[in-house]
Amino acid sequence: MTEYSNRSQYPQARADGSLDIDLTSGKYLKLWQGPNHPGITGNMSVELTVCGDEVVEGKTHVGYLHRGFEKLMERRTFIQCFPIVCRICVPEPDFNEYCYAAAVEELAGIEVPEKADWIRTLILEMGRINSYLMYLGGQAGAFGLGVIGQWTTYARDLMLDRFEELTGARIYHMFIMPGGVRDDLPEGFDQRMEETLQEIESTLQDVYDTMFRNAVFKKRAVGLGYVDPAWVDEYGITGPVARGAGVAKDVRRDQPYLVYDRLDFEPVIATESDTYARADVRRRDLLMSVDLIRQILARMPRQGEVMATLPNVLHWKIPRGETYVRGECSRGEYGYYLVTDGSGYPRRVNVRGPSYTHAMTLLEKLIVNVNISNVAGLMVSLHTYPPEIER
After folding, report:
1. Most confident of 73-82, 236-245, 350-359, 378-387
2. Is 348 helix (H, G, I), strand (E, B) or coil?
């Protein structure tokens, strides 16, 4: 196929915004990136129009995995919704558990015990580490560095051991529920967690030496997917994608929740705003989560209840009202809008995940003029989980 390096030959936009593409002309070709299950963005597909080996247009298609959560929740009792929400984001399910529980607690007037807030914060930072470790393996693998994924999977399995010890499960923990958490920390948990954190730090040093100092990774990642800081508010960009552009957005600091106002940290930022910068922001943010876990375990009260007294959850009716609860997951601001009408079912649940804006509007803007060999690397750099989009 002929490569058209002269971009003046690219199709022009019609009045409705679509491109004037004649696929029979021989200049353009349709390709599909995905869907395939493994990987950070594997459960969605991007319809590519290419001119030679450069992308002219990309359209995101979702709906290949879990979907329809919001409507399912409107047909279930409040406690039946609890095991559903964690499926919205499999690599970081605990954040959905927290946002849903916090929204229910606010409308129901439930006061969560202080110790439960500390354990919830611990759980969220453990989940953040798991999500970042999966991301690092995916980002490296998109550029051919397969060994990184093996290392980060090993480190993630160690943290899953701690999750299993604490919650009884490795993936869907269903541990943060309305009223608090299901149980206290097991005996000896602090020491075993410290051993896990030390092993993660050691693994991350190897990742840094092999991935971030790698000439091939730098050549492909530096300059790829530049995000203009002016786009951050315009496109609703949050999390490491915003912080990689020098915008220090972090709900943990800007609007503290749980016990984040009692912990010492500052948002990790970079200014280069490309794929490499976003990867490095996430690596450093992961190390910050390691430090936050140590702070939590050192400062957490060891006495007290971990669950509030709840009514009969099988016949639980919550007064009429509405609320929006937000927090900072590994990919940016996450929020739940919950409306109740006084019945035993949610009237409306709306989930605001960062994947929607990052994988739809932003990706479709950044993908133009990208070489097809770098499409996967660009997609992973935005760190999206597709079930958040068609939820």
Report:
1. 236-245
2. strand
- Residue 322 in any domain: the answer is no
Question: What's the CA gap between 235 and 229, in Å, rounded?
Answer: 10
> For residue 389, what is the domain's CATH number?
3.30.390
Query: Does residue 280 share a domain with residue 155?
Result: yes
User: How many whole angstroms separate alpha carbon 263 and alpha carbon 124?
Assistant: 14
- What confidence score (pLDDT) does residue 79 get? 92
Site of tokens 């649940």? 349
Percent of the chain residues past pLDDT 70, beyond the cut: 92
d(CA 297, CA 274): 35
Residue-wise pLDDT tens digits, 77-102: 999 998 888 888 888 899 999 999 99
Q: Find the radius of gyration of the CA atoms of the chain.
A: 22
The answer to whether residue 342 is domain-embedded is: no
Q: How far apart are CA 90 and CA 79, in angstroms?
A: 20
Q: Kindly tell me the burial class for residue 53, based on how many C-beta atoms sit within 10 Å of its own C-beta (0-12, 13-18, 19 or more).
A: middle
Q: Is the residue at 334 inside a domain?
A: no
Write down the pTM of the prediction: 0.92
Least confident of 30-34, 37-41, 253-257, 363-367: 37-41
Q: What residue numbers bound the domain in which 248 lies?
A: 87-314
DSSP state of 182: S
Inform me whether the pLDDT recorded for 238 exceeds 90. yes
Using CA atoms, how far residue 271 sits from 40, 137, 209, 228, 287, in Å, is: 24, 23, 22, 10, 19
- Residue 143's domain is classified under what CATH number? 1.10.645.10
Q: Can you read off the two tokens belonging to residue 301?
A: 């009260």
> Which of 292, 314, 336 is at the close of a domain?
314
Residues 178 and 43 in one domain: no
Residues 36 and 95 in one domain: no
Our count of domains for the chain comes to 2
Residue 9 maps to a domain: yes
Phi, psi of 244 (to 5 degrees): -70, -20
- DSSP result, 238-292: -HHHHHTTT----HHHHS--TTGGGS-------SS-SHHHHHHHHHHHHHHHHHH
